[in-house]
Amino acid sequence: MKLMGFDVGSKTVGISVSDTLGWTSQSIEIIPIDEENEIFGLDRVEELVKKYQVEGFVVGLPKNMNNSLGPRAEASQKYGKMLNERFNLPVDFQDERLTTVQAERMLIEKADVSRGKRKKVIDKLAASLILQNYLDANGKLTKK
């Protein structure tokens, strides 16, 4: 089952996709959104769903360190609900605490990427980490 992972922000959404067997995640794109004006990039997501023949979604859930849900987590849940309603595909959520920090550390330590270049790729790398963590923990999408 091929899955698509999302790192949802207020201005961009990082997107990744798994291989067909659900073993690995690959960063594919960052799409611009405007949460304030309710522009969520779903037309572009639709193009990617068709291109990659996606069968389900994994959305990063940015929980607070005390495991509670704040405004960003609620925004991610809303995005997941929109995906489910638009595509009628299952959606699951993956705790993404510290994923962006992990992505930035990887870019600094492993790739020695400048701050400006990191900003351009951080969201899709975070989406890939979210999806990879999900695949490693679950192996497949839980039907919801």
Describe the protein:
By secondary structure, the chain is an alpha/beta fold. It has a single domain (3-138), classed as YqgF/RNase H-like domain (Nucleotidyltransferase, domain 5). It has four helices and five strands, in the order βββαβαβαα. The protein has a five-stranded mixed sheet with strand order 3-2-1-4-5, sandwiched between helices. Helix 3 (99-109) packs across helix 4 (115-138). The protein is globular. The model has no long low-confidence stretch (mean pLDDT 84).
| Strand line-up across the major sheet | 3-2-1-4-5
Assign an overall shape.
Answer: globular
What's the number of structural domains?
Answer: 1
Q: State the fourth-level CATH superfamily.
A: YqgF/RNase H-like domain
Q: What amount of the residues lies in strands?
A: 15-25%
CATH topology description: Nucleotidyltransferase, domain 5
CATH architecture classification: 2-Layer Sandwich
SSE topology:
Elements: E1 3-8, E2 12-18, E3 25-32, H1 42-52, E4 56-61, H2 71-87, E5 91-95, H3 99-109, H4 115-138
Parallel strand pairs: 1-4, 4-5
Antiparallel strand pairs: 1-2, 2-3
Helix pairs in contact: 3-4
Main attributes of the structure:
Nucleotidyltransferase, domain 5; 44% helix; alpha/beta; 144 residues; single chain; 4 helices
Quick summary:
By secondary structure, the chain is an alpha/beta fold.
